[in-house]
Amino acid sequence: MKKILVTGGAGFIGSNCCNALVRDGHTVVAFDNLSLGTGDALEPGVQLVKGDVRDAAALQALGPVDFVIHLAAASSAPMFTDDFIGSIANNVLGHVTVLEYARKNGVQKVLFASTSSIYGNNPTPLTEDQRVEPPNFYSVTKHAQEELSSVYNALHQLEIIGFRFMSVYGLHEEHKGRFANLVSQFIWGIEKRKRPVLYGDGNQTRDFVNVRDIIEAFRLVLETPKRFGYTIFNIGTEHALSLRELVSVIGGIMGEAIEPILVPNPISKGYVMAQQADASKIKSELNFEASVTLDTGVREIVEYRKKHKKEPVSLSF
Ligand SMILES: NC(=O)c1ccc[n+]([C@@H]2O[C@H](COP(=O)([O-])OP(=O)(O)OC[C@H]3O[C@@H](n4cnc5c(N)ncnc54)[C@H](O)[C@@H]3O)[C@@H](O)[C@H]2O)c1
């Protein structure tokens, strides 16, 4: 069993990840500055340490670990409007501070979250070898994390694996509020009989991947004896769904025949019209295939929220 540090461990993907790894029998430290995540969803057994990934001394005080899963970040493009300099510093300085901690403490592998947003409006399905032109500051910082990791590996031989997640949804996103995935936000809205608001004609597509599949990909990367040096993997279902279809799927499961409201798209630059992963690289390297269907994933959230009602901090519509 391993000791694993999960930065951003009180957040959405982080808390699901920490819980799953503790259930697997690992020793797990969730390190989070609680700027957005709360840690409420963490199960007993996960050790929550409050601290900032830009604080080298706070990381060093954790002592050595076997693996780092680095998820702490300004995790959404609109956050860069709210706090431009702070968000850039968080994602760039935080990333290199975590890499330095890992190198100095003999960490075996660093996994980190990049994003599919860096593909912008590239032709789908999206492949890791496509040229990327990040369309917003959020994805610029994620691209910077990738480039920094590549050079860091070349100079210091630290094993670093980045993941370009598609649109991740699942349990425990309430703290993200208006920054949460649309699956969660549409469920929260429909619970209150609010009609989801879609930009444009609602035919833009997304590849909605459940957080449990993200964790399965982490497990495969942690467990494999293969060495990659530095590499990047897309993680998605390889299926694209329009937002109109998404509203209809969720409405069907919740028993509400709800029609979305269509509004002109307020995002004039960099809005992604189509997202669909080609996940053949991680499939051929590690035999990964996303297995949670949207139907299963949505039902899981709807049923969980009937028993554990928690208000999202905000909603984007
Ligand atoms: N959710 C998605 O669809 C998605 C898609 C692509 C990439 N990602 C990336 O995955 C990672 C996790 O995202 P999430 O959806 O769980 O978001 P999240 O905001 O819930 O998680 C991020 C966590 O990091 C913490 N944090 C922020 N800055 C920190 C700092 N300087 N030091 C310590 N903790 C800090 C926050 O409090 C929060 O708990 C992020 O890097 C995000 O950019 C997410």
> Which fold name fills CATH's third level, the topology of the largest domain?
Rossmann fold
User: What's the Cα radius of gyration?
Assistant: 19 Å
Number of self-contained structural domains? 2
Q: What is the overall pLDDT average?
A: 97
Identify the overall geometry: globular
List the bound ligands.
Answer: nicotinamide-adenine-dinucleotide
The portion of residues forming beta strands comes to 15-25%
Helical residue percent band: 25-40%
What's the architecture of the largest domain, going by CATH? 3-Layer(aba) Sandwich
Structural class by SSE content: alpha/beta
Relevant CATH superfamily of the largest domain: NAD(P)-binding Rossmann-like Domain
Largest sheet: 7 strands, parallel
Number of helices: 10
| Head-to-tail CA distance between termini | 44 Å
Provide the low-confidence segments as ranges.
none
E-strand count: 13
Just give the CATH class of the largest domain. Alpha Beta
Q: Within the largest sheet, what's the order of strands?
A: 3-2-1-4-5-6-11
SSE succession:
EHEEHEHHEHEEHEEEHEEHEHH
Q: If you had to describe this structure to a student in words, what would you say it looks like?
A:
The strands form four sheets. Strands 3-2-1-4-5-6-11 form a seven-stranded parallel β-sheet, with helices on both faces. It has a two-stranded parallel ribbon with strand order 7-10. Strands 8-13 form a two-stranded parallel ribbon. By secondary structure, it is an alpha/beta fold. It has ten helices and 13 strands. It binds nicotinamide-adenine-dinucleotide. Residues 7-8, 10-14, 32-37, 52-54, 71-73, 75, 90, 94, 113, 115, 165, 167-168, 176, 181 line the site of nicotinamide-adenine-dinucleotide.
